[in-house]
């Protein structure tokens, strides 16, 4: 038999190798990764050529493995054809390294199969060559990949293992991917944001989640560079981090305020907006307008600082309002030698006449930074020490960007009316803190307070988060209700708020509130936990804090909304395998979910079914769910009137993998409804119903007879011709099994 899959694979490999030879990739990690793919494919290709030349008989396992690798090679080719330097380097490296891993796995599988064939086939003699290929593929190891550094950096942020500003993995990513210059970082920030827009358009949940992680990583890199890297505007004079644009990390020559209340350099934020990006680069808030309001206060401070240090950037004074062209010309006039980065990335600020830092103040977790401001910057006869407070998480991990995102939401117009009880009296909204456009009074703001105002958003946010957590722990019922409600609102749609609030210790007190006899407190607390659990960084934290039993308590005692959200939280947590095991070991959790499945609201039933489906992915949980009498309710939900057929049949397909599940499905009268679903359900419903019927028939001749008695053949024939690919396969397997059963009975009757 002609080995068609092998020939197809050889053709795909040849096309890929030719494309690589014609392409020039400048991104080093991607270039290295592609080189490794080529190395592995060139090892395998001579062995595949021998299979074709020697006409070795086709093997089903080999054909399947070749088809798998053929698919991966075509993905690698498409990646190479689509790659452009304008795309995100981080996402490109991630994609390329994933493909390399798949190529190595598939190549190893094929080479091992070929080794077995060569040892047993008389037409092949190159056994030693095949053995050598297997050994080389097995021993192939990359040095630590960019993806590993990215995963470590994100894990360190989650676990507070390493201070964010002393993160070796972030330094490695910067060097390996080539985000060395300010413009490189700006381009990557824009590119990864555009990648997210594309992933949302493609409706790929997995891709969107991965890109969200990369956006967060780029945010960490920007903050890391702002705090640990020293940009010199002149020899021995470093630019203070609060004078640098959070997007490009360069000195802000023309600072402007965007709709989120954040300040950026006009040139950088205009590039961002011109690329069609409508969210704030720092807080991730949707920008309600794209007007850029000059920040005269910051601009005056920078001008005074430049004058105090006798720095002249350009012929035009920075005091004059610059348009985009002026700002660009200033940057160009600086020259490559004017902005110098130090080679080492360090945690502490460089000692200079302008900045110094005191030791960490104990007892309250705040770090006090004393900034000696020159007299010209203060507007006074003598220099003055200004104190800026920043709240540090455990391990002195800075959370600058995440702090601002929460503060931005707290101070937004939408939330101010509802937060008056819990926001400090001196809390200001961004509209109050920011200078008004063309306002003469804003140009005369006292410089003495300007540095403090720059970091007010961080300080207020940090202190406000601590206040919320304290209210959750020790406040009155009214304060606890307000704090839980506010956290619930802050975490509705902000990735950064979820991460930040989770890091500041809100999870344990929220879990304690699940036992509250006040139903409103209980509902706010469980909904806040649901929002927090959406973040991958919080899923493990919530489960490890002992969330299962409190959530079960809400399932048993809460109001309808609280029960729904408790089930949804368990669903969210059960995305992780370790959490599926932890929840499954609590029989009360499964019983409570099954009870909600049978007796809850429509929304509650759907949330319970989703959680139970996730739990049923772990084999040990299947029997536990069956023993909790879930099958009875699932069979009832197969009735189209309940509008839950797809969810119910999907869960039944998992439970049918165990004997107890199959027995329960038949006992509860599920076969007629399953046949009806094959006949008139949705495409996905038909596929899963066919899967359940196949499990029943393959494991019991008695069940097979019952399925036939319900008239399953006609809908199965139709499904075998017009269903999804997987549904067609299931239907064909069932029809083939029916034929085999009939032939066996006929043969038995003749004998």
TrEMBL record:
Q: Which SMART domains match?
A: ARM, Ubox
**Taxonomic superkingdom:** Eukaryota
What does the record give as its pathway?
Protein modification; protein ubiquitination
**PROSITE patterns, alphabetically?**
ARM_REPEAT, U_BOX
Record EC number: 2.3.2.27
Q: Region labeled Disordered — which residues? A: 421-444
Q: Has the keyword Repeat been applied to this entry?
A: yes
Polar residues biased stretches? 421-432
Q: Which Pfam families match?
A: ARM_PUB (PF25598), PUB2_N (PF25240), U-box (PF04564)
- Alphabetic keyword roster: Coiled coil, Repeat, Transferase, Ubl conjugation pathway
Q: Which residues form the U-box domain?
A: 238-312
Query: Which top EC class is given?
Result: transferase
Question: Which reaction is recorded as catalysed by this protein?
Answer: S-ubiquitinyl-[E2 ubiquitin-conjugating enzyme]-L-cysteine + [acceptor protein]-L-lysine = [E2 ubiquitin-conjugating enzyme]-L-cysteine + N(6)-ubiquitinyl-[acceptor protein]-L-lysine
Q: What processes in GO biological process is this protein linked to? A: protein ubiquitination
- Where the ARM repeats fall, as residue ranges, is 505-547, 588-630, 629-670
GO molecular function terms attached to this record: ubiquitin protein ligase activity
Q: Where is the signal peptide?
A: none
Q: What does this protein do?
A: Functions as an E3 ubiquitin ligase.
What protein is this chain from?
RING-type E3 ubiquitin transferase
């Amino acid at each position: 038999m002609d080995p068609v899959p092998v020939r197809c694979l050889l053709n795909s490999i040849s096309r890929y190798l030719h494309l690589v030879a014609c392409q020039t990739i400048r991104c080093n990690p991607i270039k290295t990764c592609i080189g490794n793919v080529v190395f592995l494919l060139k090892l395998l290709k001579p062995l595949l050529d021998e299979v074709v030349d020697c006409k070795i008989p086709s093997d089903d396992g080999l054909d399947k493995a070749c088809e798998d690798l053929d698919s991966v090679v075509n993905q690698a080719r498409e990646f190479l054809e689509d790659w452009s330097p304008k795309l995100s380097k981080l996402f490109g490296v991630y994609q390329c390294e994933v493909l390399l891993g798949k190529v190595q796995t598939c190549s190893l599988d094929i080479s091992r199969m070929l080794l077995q064939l060569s040892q047993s086939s008389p037409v092949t003699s190159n056994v030693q060559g095949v053995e050598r290929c297997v050994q080389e593929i097995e021993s192939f190891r990359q040095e630590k990949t960019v993806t590993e550094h990215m995963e470590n950096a994100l894990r360190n942020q989650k676990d507070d293992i390493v201070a964010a500003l002393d993160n070796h993995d972030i330094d490695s990513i910067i060097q390996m991917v080539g985000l060395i210059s300010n413009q490189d970082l700006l381009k990557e920030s824009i590119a990864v944001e555009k990648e997210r827009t594309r992933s949302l358009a493609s409706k790929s949940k997995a891709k969107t989640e991965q890109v969200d992680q990369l956006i967060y990583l780029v945010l960490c890199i920007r903050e890391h560079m702002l705090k640990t890297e020293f940009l010199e505007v002149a020899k021995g004079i470093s630019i203070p981090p609060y004078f640098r644009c959070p997007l490009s990390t360069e000195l802000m020559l023309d600072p402007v305020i965007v709709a989120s209340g954040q300040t950026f350099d006009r040139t950088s934020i205009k590039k961002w907006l011109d690329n069609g990006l409508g969210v704030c680069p720092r807080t991730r808030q949707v920008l309600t307008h794209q007007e850029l309001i000059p920040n005269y206060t910051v601009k005056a401070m920078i001008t005074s600082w430049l004058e105090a240090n006798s720095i002249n950037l350009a012929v035009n004074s920075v005091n004059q309002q610059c348009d985009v062209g002026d700002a660009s010309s200033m940057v160009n006039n600086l020259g490559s030698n004017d902005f110098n980065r130090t080679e080492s990335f360090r945690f502490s600020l460089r000692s200079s006449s302008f900045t110094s830092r005191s030791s960490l103040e104990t007892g309250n977790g705040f770090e006090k930074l004393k900034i000696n401001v020159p007299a010209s910057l203060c507007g006074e006869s003598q220099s003055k020490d200004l104190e800026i407070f920043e709240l540090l998480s455990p391990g002195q991990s800075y959370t600058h960007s995440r702090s601002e995102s929460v503060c931005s939401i707290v101070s937004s117009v939408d939330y101010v009316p509802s937060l008056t009880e819990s926001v400090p009296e001196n809390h200001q909204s961004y509209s109050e803190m920011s200078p008004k456009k063309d306002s003469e009074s804003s140009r005369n703001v006292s410089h003495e307070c300007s540095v403090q105002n720059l970091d007010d958003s961080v300080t207020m946010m940090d202190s406000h988060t601590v206040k919320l957590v304290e209210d959750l722990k020790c406040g009155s019922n009214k304060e606890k209700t307000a704090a839980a409600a506010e956290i619930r609102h802050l975490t509705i749609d902000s990735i950064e708020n979820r991460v930040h609030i989770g890091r500041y210790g809100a999870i344990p007190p929220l879990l304690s509130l699940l036992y509250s006899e006040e139903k409103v407190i209980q509902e706010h607390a469980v909904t806040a936990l649901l929002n927090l659990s959406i973040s991958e960084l919080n899923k493990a934290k919530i489960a490890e804090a002992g969330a299962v039993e409190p959530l079960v308590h809400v399932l048993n005692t809460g109001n309808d909304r609280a029960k729904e959200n408790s089930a949804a939280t368990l669903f969210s947590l059960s995305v992780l395998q370790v959490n599926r095991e932890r929840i499954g070991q609590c029989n009360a959790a499964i019983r409570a979910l099954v009870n909600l499945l049978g007796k809850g609201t429509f929304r509650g039933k759907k949330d319970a079914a989703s959680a139970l489906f996730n739990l049923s992915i772990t084999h040990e949980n299947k029997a536990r769910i069956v023993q909790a009498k879930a099958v009875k309710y699932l069979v009832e939900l197969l009735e189209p009137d309940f509008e839950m057929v797809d969810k119910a049949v999907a869960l039944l397909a998992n439970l049918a993998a165990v004997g107890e599940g199959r027995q329960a499905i038949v006992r509860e009268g599920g076969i007629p409804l399953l046949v009806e679903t094959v006949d008139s359900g949705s495409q996905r419903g038909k596929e899963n119903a066919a899967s359940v019927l196949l499990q029943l028939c393959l494991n019991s001749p008695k069940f097979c007879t019952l399925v036939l008695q319900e008239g399953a053949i006609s809908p199965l024939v139709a499904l075998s011709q017009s269903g999804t690919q997987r549904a067609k396969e299931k239907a064909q397997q069932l029809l083939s099994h029916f034929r085999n059963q009939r032939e066996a009975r006929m043969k038995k009757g003749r004998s």
